[in-house]
Amino acid sequence: MRVAIAGAGNVGRSIARELIASGHQILLIDRDPNAIKPESVPEAEWLLADACEVSSLEEAGLDTCDVAIAATGDDKANLVHSLLAKTEFGVPRTVGRVNHPANEWMFDDLWGVDVSVSTPRLMCALVEEAVTVGDLVRLFSFRGGHANLVEMTLPEESPRVGSRVSDLSLPGDAVLVAIIRDGAARAPERDAALEADDELLFLAPSESEPELAQYLMPKAPRDV
Q: Which CATH architecture has domain 132-216?
């Protein structure tokens, strides 16, 4: 894929290196001359330009990109770049970096953002995930919260321990997308059985999350 990254700071360069290692073609765009450091990611294309200007994006050939990533430290710039990429250049997929959690609500399809990534929220989710077992943790949202990536570490007392993936009756439109066991991710094969302390990753709409948590959690003992 050809991927344009608006913002050539530490975040943008790190993303570029990871994607290049996976075999993708990368274009880094930044309007600050001090950010243009081709020697730091020599395999990437570099462009000194304003990623929020139509003429600059035309020069960048944004219409030939499969993905546009808005990774600057300015939420306004990330929104404008995503909107232009989607509406003016027809980029199939856009990813927007959210710097300030208060702005997260704006990063949706109305602003041309397909996937928003909030670093503060993700870090908080990972902290919660590290200290809780049996709590459903939202890692991040797709398309303004219509679908979320959520995680639960399955407690030993869960009635789903030992269940085969094919026997699960997940609520709503929830989908099990991966099982992380002993630090290794694996696909949820139909005959695979869930084990205690498995980290389960789901795609689920917001309205299905409470029911999903209830489905996976141990049932409370009845009063006698």
A: 2-Layer Sandwich (3.30)
